[in-house]
Amino acid sequence: MDSHPKSQFLESLQALLPPGALLTSREDLLSYSYDATPGLKQTPIGVVLPDRTEQVRRIIDLARREKVPVVTRGSGTGLSGGSIPVPGSIVLGTVRMNRIIEVDTKNLTLLAEPGATTLQISEAAEKSLLFYPPDPGSMKVSTIGGNVAENSGGLRGLKYGVTRDYVMGLEVVLPDGRVLETGNKCVKDVAGYSIKDLFIGSEGTLGVITKILLKLLPMPAAKKTLLASFSSMADAAATVSSIIENRIIPCTLEFLDRTTIRCVEDYASIGLPLDAEAILLMETDGHPAVVEEEASKMRELALRHGAMNVDAAKDAAEGQRLALARRSAFVALARVAPTTILEDVTVPRSRLVEMVEFIQKAAEKHRLKVGTFGHMGDGNLHPTFLTNEKDGDEMARVEQAFMEIFEKAVALGGTITGEHGVGIAKKKFLHLVVKKPGLEYMKKVKQAFDPDNLLNPGKIFD
To answer: N or C: which end of the chain has fewer CB within 10 A?
Structure first.
């Protein structure tokens, strides 16, 4: 940038774009200086909002020539600092590339641009009586491009998997300005390396995703939702283990602890049991007969393992109301303190009770308030510390608590992130779970694709 002043670069950038596609005002730049991760902020030199692949290609080509870093951003709902700008960078926002290009009912696929929201994808599939399962908590606003870049999960991950399981093809603008098309509508394709899988979960460090081909499923014929309340977290976890042992794979198996239950009830007045130490949200879907059988069996298992009550939704509307309890957990907790730090760790399901108890002990040890909820069916927990980022001493205690939580998760055979990604927030912990030579080869992949280190530099690793 020294030999190419900022103003000159921005003028060249403006020449590539239609009016209104380059933002440089202080107010606009501030709006793109942070994401949903507390405590992280950096102002870019400009924000570009392309509406087609060719514009992206030109932006990347110019940035490469001028050695200006590019940070790709969807809706900014990330929780690991993955879309935080770096000094001297531009933000490439994808929100104007938001078309659903095709729903192919013969091949059960959907082609979309990266700025389409997850909810748009889901609704477009439903119009054709099809189903896109991944459902991150922020699905109303999160973009499908961001979902792919972070390999997002969701409440239905236990039965249906995560974003990676539904990506059949990608169009990507590479750091050298070329456009790569990888994957297709074929159910089977083992010709060479699966290049598309490198971009899924790469957090925008290898290329800019401009089109996404997704696999769809037939819409489940029936669904049933149950809410079980427990006097101990151990009983809830034992119920989860028993459900899985009985060869039942619900589409949703979520939990909330006492702190989260109270916050959600204060926020949404759903009618949750305030005397419970934990609740399980259990949902089964599929053929009507199977749904009834599985729901009945899950109710029986919950009661056998100490559930105080098991309530079944009377209809779809009530099922959605019960599901709201879990979907509103983060928002409800965020009302309690100035700063809400939502993390995620994953452990084998057999170690869930140990992990949940450790999180609570870590909070007590460091004099912190924590609410824990998450995807108990797949071992993915979200310890959420309620704190104040202006209190330096308390934030230091939060950081120490998280270090201990991450170390414990890895010691139990788990990992430091199940769905939020590494970004900036977790890169110093990556060595806990990715050992040599794995980390070395990750860096070699980055070097091979982006030798000038211009795409989202400083994320995942230095």
So the answer is: C
